[in-house]
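Researcher: First entry.
Model:
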Amino acid sequence: MQMQHVVKYGNIVIEFTLQVSDRRTVAISVQPDCEVIVKAPKGANLLRVQELVHKRARWIQKQKQYFQQFFPRTPVRNYVGGETHLYLGRQYLIKLITADKPFLKLCGRHLIIQHPDVTSPHNIEKILYAWYKSRAEQLFRERFEFCFSNFSKKCAVEVPKLHIRKMKSRWGSYALSGRMTLNLELIKASIDCIDYVITHELCHTVHPNHGPGFYKLLKSVLPDYAIKKSKLEQSLA
């Protein structure tokens, strides 16, 4: 059973999901999407739980700030001719051509988009993201196989099931069910940044949280992960 509750800490309101189950202690965690989850024993006093959340408020805010730095911050696009869009870390200029059938091709530093009605931003966005998805389906799986090959030399884990979709608040995620999800927006980043996100999520197959063990493993697999992390944040800011 789970319920939504709030705790006020100064001017900050902390919303949290309370999950009650057969357990002995109260555990507080912050998920990568910044959701605060509190697990408590059945019959736990709500006031006591709220006091514990209030006591950990500074830590909760610090965790949220940490995860927020990974949120995609791509500027709003208008999907018009002459606008630049990223693909694998490089900027490409949109060139629109009126034609009978919708089509996109990469030519030099241009994304040439054809459509019967090129005056509609919705049409241009739809074609562009269909192309992004097609490229991501192939490239992400290639990079996943490469990264998993390196990772499996350090840890013997089952191969996660890879899924790709557009996400609002994360570059990637890993569920205990064995499902790894990559944000379609990553197709805009360079390959080394994509590898960083995949490796980051692979480390969660061993360490669900971002504790010392997680970073020790990440650094052992990807020694320059901090550089790639910074590059990703700057390139898609």
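Researcher: Second entry.
Model:
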Amino acid sequence: MPGTLTAMTLTGIHVPLITPFSADGAVAIEAIAQLANDALDAGAAGLVAFGTTAEVAALSVGERTEILDVCARICRERDASLIVGAGGSDTAATLRALTELAGHTAALVTVPSFTRPGEAGVLAHFAHLAAHSPVPLVIYHIPYRTGQQLSAATLRELGSLPGIIGVKYAVGGIDAQTVELFADVPADFDVLIGDDVVVGPAFAMGASGGILASANVATAPFVDLYQAWQTGDLVRARDLGGKLGRVAAALFAEPNPTVLKGVLHATGRIPTADVRLPLVPASQDSVDAALKLLADLGS
């Protein structure tokens, strides 16, 4: 397997699944199952349910239950990891959500959004969750959505807490704090890159893997990129990293996951390109641009 789960260590490519909808607006559960199996067939180490890409805020409790049941069954049958999105701005409510995830690989928990509790508050929040959660935690650090920045020093302190096994690192690029974090990553703490455009440079710096929305449409090339860095094939890694960076930029030209869904629908993998309000479908120009880059990738 190109990525593995050993002693609660996550490596490799994890695909945060989209939520496809049928023409009547219902969740297309059979399409989700096919996407999940396709990703694992292409070499993904695991799946992520209920990330940003899944439009999780627009899903009902019943829809989430149905989706999670399917993803859990497939990952169990395929011996793959399943990371489940959970969390919010309130510590007590987040812990209640975590108690329902016993038995899954890990929970992906956002840094508290909107409240902006400061780094001391974030530390207290995750220390409390880690002490009581039935599953290991992966911090989801995405400051352009949460409004809360974290320093490399704070992430290291979080990474030293028992029960916290990694971070989905999506700060919008590579900056001085990124360099500082990779210079001294805590033991048994995996940094999974979440900024698809800079996945190549992140692997070069030592990222353990990635949780990459773009891998919904290009799983195998992202797996190839990860393997190239792992085996030291620098020529292949640099060339493929540049190409995948351009693909990712095209897929994020409009709000995620609208272009992804347009591409998946155009290639016959989901029944519609529909998204739920307040999202609106991507323009045809954006979808066509992404399709062209994907076609070039395979040439």
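Model: Note on the second entry: Strands lie at 5-6, 9-10, 12-16, 46-49, 81-86, 106-110, 137-141, 164-169, 190-193, 209-211.
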